[in-house]
């Protein structure tokens, strides 16, 4: 475990305690390596990968709960909440789910039975311990007129796969808040698609309680105005909002530079300014936002070190590679007081 000299600085989650939970995504490595930082600044965790379908049920009926259980233990010992991520997704779901044991594509009824079996087992195991679940992840399409992206779920079950997932999850744990979670959530066109999807679920009395805004953003996009409009649009459905996977990349998505090996002063300043502005907005809308989770905790580990440019370092968080607070941290703290 890394030890840091962060005594005497404000605790991030305490500053926002009357507004929302402050969470971090963890994995086996960071749970250990960032232990002290996590305990000091966060009051919620989620699993980066370890609660996804392929991690929990790699083969039919063979569940692996070891790492997910360790995360829950850690959270309990440190008085933190846990967000479950994620039950139904087109990615990181093993092929067996969609195939017959002999060969060929499984039929609709069997796929729904398998979905139900997975959700029953997983959600029941953590019943009462996880305050929320991302029930369906990334089902909305990024381009074109279709609302839903093409996927095996959609091909085999039809659009009802979404409602079914929520019904099964709600039956397994009626106390957990259930979320539809997606990225590019603040893009004007995708925002409307997500809005329409969730509206139609609500109209059918599907037990959905919230929208997860992943918030994989960068120094320039989306604009503050787009974020504000998104929060207002989603909140108008009467659902709770969670910021579920926040990071502020130093690079725009189509910037494929590889020559930048340390963050420049300009980048760090811009990031700090933006973090301050965005948290000010979250606080302003805290009546609707009850949890803000970063997709990591400190710059020594981020999935953005490999995506979308392989082996390019990124520095998307409030704490640096040594776990020391960046100016971004101080601006976030100041936003809680303004
Ligand atoms: C999406 C998923 C997450 C994770 C990130 C990349 O946002 O919801 O689980 O896979 O991509 O780390």
The topology string of helices and strands comes to HEHHEHHEHEHHEHEEHEHEH
Question: If you compute it from the alpha carbons, what radius of gyration comes out, rounded to the nearest whole angstrom?
Answer: 20 Å
What structural category characterises the helix and strand content?
A: alpha/beta
Largest sheet composition: 8 strands, parallel, barrel
- Envelope shape: globular
What's the end-to-end separation, in Å? 35 Å
Can you count the beta strands?
Answer: 9
Bound ligands, each once: alpha-D-galactopyranose
Helix content: 25-40%
* % residues in beta strands: 15-25%
How are strands sequenced across the largest beta sheet? 1-2-3-4-5-6-8-9
The total of helices stands at 12
pLDDT averaged residue by residue = 96
Low-confidence stretches: none
Oligomer: single chain
Topology of this protein?
Elements lengths: L11 H4 L5 E6 L1 H6 L1 H7 L2 E4 L5 H4 L9 H12 L3 E8 L19 H18 L4 E8 L14 H6 L2 H13 L4 E6 L5 H16 L6 E4 L2 E3 L5 H12 L4 E10 L15 H20 L4 E6 L32 H11 L1
Parallel strand pairs: 1-2, 1-9, 2-3, 3-4, 4-5, 5-6, 6-8, 7-8, 8-9
Bound molecules: alpha-D-galactopyranose.
